[in-house]
Amino acid sequence: MTEIKRQSPVQFKVSPRSTEVRDNWTVALEYDEEGQGPWLVDLAHKTRWDLQDSKVAEQRPCDLDVPEAPGSCTFANDTLVNRMNRTQASIYHLGEAAPSLPDFAGYTDVTESTVFLALFGPKAFHIAEKLTALDFLDPAKQAPFLYQGPFCHVPCQIVTLEKAADGSGGFVLTCSRGYGDSMIHAVLEAGSALGLRPAGENRFTTWINGLQG
Known about the structure:
Elements: E1 18-22, E2 25-30, E3 39-42, E4 48-52, E5 73-76, E6 79-83, E7 88-93, E8 107-109, E9 114-121, H1 124-128, E10 145-151, E11 154-163, E12 169-176, H2 180-191, E13 197-199, H3 201-212
C-alpha cells in the first residue's frame, strides 16, 4: 500500500537544513541563515480543529475552557482555544503531538484544508501593518486574542500571542489552503526590508515555550 504523503500548501524558495517526517508530514526543523528575526514559520503540520455546537462554551477541548466572549482565547499546554462566535471555536495544537479528535459530532479536523503560519520576532507587527488594517497593538487588548478579518485581502483567523509597543511579538494565522502561495509571497515581500526570513519549527518551539513559561 502506498503511504500517504501530506503536503503543505506553502513552499519557501529555500530548502531547510534539517527536517523530520512526522505523521506523513515533512517538517522543517531549521533553515540556514535564519538571522535575528523576524521569522516566518510554516505550521501546516500542526493539528487544527473546528468546534461548532449550540452550547460550545460547555465543551472542554483538551481539558481547557472555551472562552465566553468572541475574540477571547485560552492558551495552555501547547493548546490554543479561540472563541469565534456564539456557536463556534477553533483549536490549534502547537506542540509536536496532538490528541486524537474527540468523539463528539461538533469537532472537525481542518488541518489539511488550511494554511497555518507564524510570524514573530522583532518588528513583526511593522510587517503586519503593511498587510492589514487590523490593530494588533491595540493597548486595550491583552494577548492572546483573536481577530477574524482580512490579511493580505484574504479572510483569516489571526491570534496575537505576544505584543509589545515597539512592534515586536508575534501571531499565528490560518486561511483557506488555496491562498497559500499568494500569502507567502505577500508576507515575505512586505518583510524583506525588515529582515524577515523563513525559520523552522525549532525556532517556533523556543518562542512558544518562552510564552508559556
